[in-house]
Write a sequence for this structure.
């Protein structure tokens, strides 16, 4: 991820480069609406409405007809004011539109910077940020389901609950040590040990799924080995 410049307004192509029917460019940051106003000729920006118009060059000539959607922060993916522009998916036209956005005051976004800002602005936790990439790169239904679960915050909720339980236990112990005159119940040692044991069980159960998660993300490198003409190719074809 890039170095932190939260005051910058960033722009990038959000769909794969190449030729296609539609390409999507994203702009995010404090000046996103102003950048859009400089390049977009069409209806007035209205949050969460797709607006039809044109992206125009500095001299006013049209670069492409587009659909523009404005997401006012914090109700956006990054938590900042965000613009998404859907234009035709040609290599040249998308490059020209992106160049116009950069010319109008945005800077080129670094790899993963939109998701980085979503994390920094509290829209995603770290596990969900990782889930975004896992979802994009999923190759099987199982890996897609696992990534979807992580993006929904399942893993984050379990780790947060474990952390909160430890903090509660620590706070109780520290209060009992620091303020003995307040008659704070120290609770029994067995109860405190039980809380800590429950957290350890949670952590151990999560760690136990690490190898499975790696297999889902990366697959398994394997070899089909045997004598000639014993069905290796047939087995491979059946698996495929």
């Amino acid at each position: 991820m890039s170095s932190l410049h939260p005051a910058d307004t960033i722009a990038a192509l959000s769909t794969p480069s190449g030729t296609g029917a539609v390409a999507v460019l994203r702009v995010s940051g404090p000046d996103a609406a102003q950048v859009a106003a400089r390049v977009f000729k069409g209806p007035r920006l209205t949050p969460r409405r797709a607006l039809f118009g044109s992206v125009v060059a500095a001299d006013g000539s049209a670069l492409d007809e587009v659909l523009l959607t404005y997401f006012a922060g914090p109700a956006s993916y990054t938590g900042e004011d965000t613009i998404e522009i859907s234009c035709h998916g040609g290599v040249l036209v998308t490059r020209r539109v992106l160049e116009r956005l950069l010319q109008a005051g945005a800077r080129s976004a670094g790899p993963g910077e939109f998701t980085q800002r979503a994390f920094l602005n509290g829209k995603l936790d770290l596990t969900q940020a990782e889930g975004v990439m896992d979802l994009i790169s999923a190759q099987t239904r199982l890996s897609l389901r696992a990534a979807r679960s992580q993006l929904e915050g399942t893993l984050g909720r379990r780790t947060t609950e474990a952390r909160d339980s430890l903090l509660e236990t620590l706070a109780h112990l520290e209060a009992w040590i620091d303020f003995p005159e307040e008659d704070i119940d120290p609770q029994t040692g067995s109860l405190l040990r039980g809380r800590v044991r429950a957290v350890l069980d949670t952590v151990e159960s999560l760690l136990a799924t690490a190898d499975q998660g790696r297999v889902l993300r990366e697959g398994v490198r394997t070899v089909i080995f045997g004598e000639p003409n014993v069905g290796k190719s047939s087995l491979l074809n059946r698996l495929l």
